[in-house]
Records
---
Amino acid sequence: MKMKSEWEDLEQKLQEALTPNRYRHTLGVSYTACALAMRYGEDLGAARRAGLLHDCAKCMSNSEMRQMANRKKIALSAFELEHPALLHAKLGVHVARDTYGITDAAVLEAIRWHTTGKPDMTLLQSIIFTADYIEPNRDKAPRLPELRRLAFTDLNRCIYEILHDTVDYLSENPKSMDTMTLKALEFYRNRAEEAGALKQGE
Ligand code: DGI
Ligand code: FE
Ligand code: FE
């Protein structure tokens, strides 16, 4: 019998664990991450793997997530319990390791920070954060055509614009903002200012 490739195996398991829409998004992120990896010189396998797995915990219910955290003794803050949408990134690290056999720490860290971003992301983290936002199935965010182009011309500036729009969107409900999202925004705003791409106060 022919051995299944790593990719066939991962894709089959993910298709079983995710809803059809989430699985389609997952493939979109994986291929978009590959394109960015080709553009910026990241390891293609790591980008493909992290793209496939970034949302591997997304289709767990809130109670399943809480049970898993208890079982694995993963500390959850009151803030995380109140905003379960943020939890799939933290728990995704454990699901990727324990259920999908991912051992590459760089891939696990890219999963960990894909929702909020963080200051000074590695290239792989930057690629996954960006691919998650611009992959072809996304259609809700404003100015996607502009950001899709920017991702391939100036990745750091693109990250700044994504964080800016995310914080703008979350500002309707400021208490829901994760401090890491704000720290990331500040870091990438400073970086864009230093690069001369932004005028003070823009
Ligand atoms: O899992 P996806 O839907 O593919 O994308 P994601 O992991 O980026 O999650 C998207 C959601 O995360 C979106 O509704 C915005 C939200 N988000 C990003 N930063 C924050 C946040 N939600 C809260 N409450 N706080 C944040 O700082
Ligand atoms: Fe996600
Ligand atoms: Fe996603």
---
Amino acid sequence: MHYNGYAHIHTIGCQMNVYDSEKLGTVLHALGYQLTRHPEQADIIVCNTCAIRHKAEEKAFSFLGRFAKEKRKNPRLITVMAGCVAQQEGKNAFQRLPHLDLVLGTQAFSRFSTHIAALKSGQRQIVDTAPSDVIFETLPDDTAFAENPVSKFVTIMQGCDNFCTYCVVPYVRGRERSRSWQSIVAEIEILAEKGIREVTLLGQNVNSYGAKENSLSFAGLLEKVAGVDGIHRIRFATSHPKDLSHDLIRAMADLDKVCDHLHLPVQSGSNRILKKMNRGYTAELYLSRIDALRSAIPDIGLSTDIIVGFPSETSEEFEQTMALVKQVGFDSIFAFAYSDRSSAPAAKFSDPVDDTEKMARLNRLLTFQDTMTQKKNEQMTGRVVQVLVEGVSLKQHDGFVKTTPHTRQMTGRSEANKIVHFPSDTLAAGDLVEIKILNAYPHSLWGTASGTVMP
Ligand code: SAH
Ligand code: SF4
Ligand code: F3S
């Protein structure tokens, strides 16, 4: 193939962006570019951006800003802002980044190669934030397997129709649309042939997969994916509590390959705040779904997202969030200080919580969860968990060095998504193994292989 130079892709934001960046990589590869981890070596630099919070947006501007000087030295260097900030900013991006060559919105990825050709023939400052009727799909090529040879994200739907009042996603990603199950399964079959053993199916609200298209339900899709030979494990994110159905809980319980883990964002424990967020459920409904999940899948690992300091959140309402978090006992949480997004309705709500108070609430929540995570990890000692081996661990545990100094230390994840380290000279990435947990650490577990191995 004609060699065109080096391309560097920098990804900020959610798992969907990781997936999208791989697709952009596939396009660049097809155009003859070789991917590089080193931006200073690159002839084309792409930043795939996230607009979810102010900080994420700033990261995009600061990353791309670094190449203004480079560009003066090397006018042939192409710089691209892709994804959610690109969609949000359009041509305004040039005000802060006059050296930028292409603003590629979230639905413009199918036109990426055309724009690259135009840039190569001398055009500058191209903006494409136009909508698209088709969902951009490319089959994974070898460039997609560099990061993790065992586990991959697969986006199954785009956009969101929920319009939570704090959230920018419906404005930057557009309306919800699902890919066909046939194309999803075909993609996963290729991944399995390449050695991938775990897939995480992605959508903003996977429970409504196929609803608009009136096709297979999400539970039905899980069954299809479970039928792909070579795939040992299936995960998915994100589930919206209002749409978590009994069918899905059943499918999770019945399908062995679906991991016993669920990420179920609650956002707040206060019904008044949940209503202002337009979440469509109450704290009581959320707790009843947790009960249903735990009675169907007793060992289920649970994680959640929480926003603290939503406009007008009182300290009592924050205490309700703390109380809910304590009551559920999550394995892990992702907590964020509310960040104003000008396109989202909550930006116009009165009564903002001041930043110092927001940070104080966030710190209390995170400190509590650290203790809970440690406690949950300690509860695992003595138990046997199924682990998908990811490879040789880079970090050596002290206890391990003393007891088994000549054996390799491997790493993998349990079904509940906990990192597990263990000694082995025979196991390899992609093996499924049973590990007896001997020690718990704040961010990982340690144990020894104890049983059945599926190579
Ligand atoms: N679709 C998913 C979440 C997508 S965004 C869902 O509905 O749960 C990931 C997380 O970012 C959200 O769950 C929320 O906790 C957080 N988030 C979104 N907008 C935010 C904002 N304006 N400020 C702070 N956190 C926000
Ligand atoms: Fe944003 Fe709500 Fe959609 Fe999640 S469900 S992406 S939080 S609007
Ligand atoms: Fe960010 Fe866009 Fe994902 S705003 S969280 S990259 S959908």
